[in-house]
Amino acid sequence: MATDVITLITQDHRTVESIFDRLKTGQGDQKAAVAELHALLIAHARAEEDRVYPGLDAHHSVEEHKEAEILLDALVRAEPGTPEFRETLDELVASVGHHVQEEESTLLPALRQTADAKELDRLGKAFEQRRAEELKALSGSASGSPDGATKAELYEQAQQADIPGRSQMDKQELAQALKKAGS
Ligand SMILES: [Fe+2]
Q: How many angstroms separate the alpha carbon of residue 101 from the centre of ligand 1?
């Protein structure tokens, strides 16, 4: 499995986009998709800010994370299917899309220029560790489920295990797929 920070960050961006697609089409459990998006984006942003941005000139990106967090909170509060939900989602998609584009066209290429493979791996491990901590903290504050794991956590494990079709699965399907994969 890839551990370099550029691959890990880029993977998260693609996952975020696939959740946006689920929200835009209105298919599947919308509340669960919002919860998953919330956990992933917050954990991703914290890990970037703490482990990747120091050493890069990334003040602007920190501002953009703050803007995304405000929109995310509004999306969590909005009722799926309402105009308010749709408008907030559109704003969030535009905001995050712009940020992702900037990161992938400027920040990450700059990082690739300045850091060697070993450093990219070291940053990748630090990023992943910080991100996992944050996901754990976030799931602790979410409503507990009987078997202890939240959907976001299961999704996270499915991502690590590279389970195909994971973005379309509900919590139970994720749990079953993980069991089958032996993790
Ligand atoms: Fe990012």
A: 9
| Å from CA of 107 to ligand 1 middle | 10
DSSP 84-98: HHHHHHHHHHHHHHH
Q: Please name the helix (run of DSSP H) or strand (run of DSSP E) that holds residue 5, with its range, or none.
A: helix 5-25
DSSP string, 24-60: HHT-S-HHHHHHHHHHHHHHHHHHIIIIISTTS--HH
**For 11-23, how does the pLDDT look when each residue is reduced to its tens digit (9 = 90+)?**
999 999 999 999 9
Distance 179 CA to ligand 1 centre (A): 30
pLDDT tens digits, one per residue of 67-105: 999 999 999 999 999 999 999 999 999 999 999 999 999
C-alpha distances (whole Å) from 95 to each of 43, 46, 61, 98, 172 are 17, 17, 11, 5, 32
Task: Report the pLDDT value the prediction gives residue 156, as an integer from 0 to 100.
Answer: 80
